[in-house]
Amino acid sequence: MLPGLIDSHVHFDLAAHPAPFSHWDRMPFVRSMTCLHNGLLALRAGITSVRDLGSVDHMVVDYSRQVSEGHLIGPQVIAAGRPITMTGGHCADYGRVADGAEELRLAVREQIAAGARVIKLMATGGISSPGNPGLAQLTVEEMSVAVEEAHKAGLSVAAHAHAPDGIANAIEAGVDTIEHAAFASDRSFEIMKTNGTMLVPTVSALNPIQAGVGIPAATVDKSLRAREIFRESTARAIAAGVRIAAGTDAGTAFNPIGGLLDEMQMYVDGGLTAADALRTATVNAGPLVRAPGTGSPEVGVIAIGSRADLLVANGDPRSDLEALRRPAHVIANGRLVDLDWVDKTIGELAGMLE
């Protein structure tokens, strides 16, 4: 028995389609069923808490509320609402575009008012959107104001940041986690370690990318050029002693919810022991999905008073992570999950969502 797993970077309002963001143009009903489907996929994989780091609107915030109030079965979701980006920045077609410190302040307040429990900022360009992922975007001044507003409300801040300038800007602004860091320098990792900034690599997200399967050509080109660099960067982060929380970026192209074990295996390939890789998805990630507010239970540990999220594995994952491939039992917030029902419902929903 071990704590339920935590995926610190997902997108429950995406469906792992070849052009994933087109999902946000689908009918709200279909999108809501996708959230339900993804929640069940997470539970089947033993994932009992996630951070959802961005959607076109507040669909996942609403889904999270339904789960927390007991109306739906699913994992605990700490949702960001709309990611905040600059004009022409990463995900500008779908995120909350904001320019200048006061506009950033307003954008953060909007997400908090809508029920967001974490804030997502875009500090550099991206691989899955037009533009150069190596270029810094939101400024230190803009992100500092965003962090101030989020922290004042008790929320943490995650920064999408691939390259050294954007990473340094985000850390100087006071963000809590750096997402991805595909092109980070050794200096980037030194700054992360010094400041205690958590890294959420999502390195496995590029594994399924290939040409000829419907993924936009620009995304394929950038992904294939970045893939080995990303893996090497993650290994250097591990060697540097940067604290890592496991995250998959699930929902992106051919990257369905539930692939956390494959991400953890890549950390082992990069130098972690199986036991330390397990900590990235439990103990390390726990503070990132601890519900805002004083007195909320600990997550990612088994202790008196902690959140009752547990899984039972047929083997010891501290020596072999494959023991987690298909959990024997899952308990989510004190409730034993009927995995046979989950399997049946996943199959029924999958046919509707193709």
- Radius of gyration computed on alpha carbons: 18 Å
* Total DSSP E strands: 13
What fraction, in percent, of the residue positions are helical? 25-40%
Q: Structural class of the helices, strands and pairings?
A: alpha/beta
Beta-strand percent range: 5-15%
Number of domains: 1
Rounded to the nearest angstrom, the distance between the terminal CA atoms is: 35 Å
Characterization of the model:
With 354 residues, this protein is of the alpha/beta class. The protein has one domain: TIM Barrel. The chain is built from 10 helices and 13 strands. It has helices at residues 28-44, 59-68, 101-114, 140-152, 164-173, 186-195, 217-240, 260-269, 274-280, 339-353, and strands spanning 2-3, 5-10, 47-52, 76-79, 84-85, 96-97, 118-122, 156-161, 177-180, 198-200, 310-312, 329-332, 335-336. The chain has a 4-stranded antiparallel beta sheet, with no helix packed on it. A hairpin with a 2-residue loop joins strand 12 (329-332) and strand 13. Helix 1 (28-44) runs antiparallel to helix 10 (339-353), helix 4 (140-152) crosses helix 5 (164-173) and helix 8 crosses helix 9. It is globular and about 50 Å long. The two termini are 35 Å apart.
